[in-house]
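Lab meeting, action items carried over

1. Structure of the two-component assembly. Owner: GW. Status: complete.
Input record:
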Amino acid sequence: LRKNNKGQSTIEFILTFTSTVGFIFLFLKMSLNYTNGYMVQHAVFMASRGYMVHDNQLHDESFGDGAAKVHATTIFKKYLPRGLITSFNSQLEVNSPGNDSIKKVFVGVWVEFEQMFSVGFIGGKDLVKFRAESFLGREPTKFEGYKQTCEAIKIIPGSSCGATSHVTLDDNGG
Amino acid sequence: MDVVWMDKFLLDKTVANTKGQSVIEYILLLSVIAGLGSAVMNNKKFKGFLSGKDGMFLTMKKGMAYSYRYGIEYNNGMVYDFDYSSPKHPTYMNAEAGSSHFFTNGKKYP
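Predicted assembly:
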């Protein structure tokens, strides 16, 4: 002990190095979480675009939203960089316009996924829940448009539906 | 005569050199710092500050999740959960104004 003081710097280095590296890893992981979040948000946004306009061209409106969900999920998987975001095992969820318990303004898609808060001993390895949402709505399908137009024509006076008022078919651009 | 002997004895046995002084002082200082560090780390308030219910790291986690979802800075007490059954989604609704963040035309479209 008394021959030299070579160990002093080593001990001090170990003491400061562990805490410093811990903080560096904390902020590094936080940055990665935000980056992953941006990538997932972009994938969700692209999926939402697909969900909004998808039309299966079928003469049955009941399958339209389901097919749109499948289409949106395909787009989401295409845009999600799974190689970069490890341990991502969440599924894309949809707020369908047919669901009456959901406000129409929130029709669209979302995904919830979890990431570790930190990798080091500082901050802990608890999971943080992230939810990316995109509510662009959903356009009526071609068949729904056709059906609505047909209904409107049907209520012209003299038709078998017994309507009593005139109907004007007008595209207001909405 | 006694004093002379004492001086000689001390000089020979105790203060022959000062090599050990820095080591002992270092150990003492290290133990004091370690003791202080341990006292701070085990302090209830400090533990609460770091990892309690409203601790720094938990607040950071909540803030990260909240601001990611809603795009709004998190403050203590803000509720994360939202089930789409009301229009009170923080991104959509301006709670202070009591109306939507979005706006539309004042007059009805013809």
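2. GW to write a short summary for the group page. Key points so far: The radius of gyration of chain B is 33 Å. Chain B touches chain A through 23 residues (CB under 8 Å).
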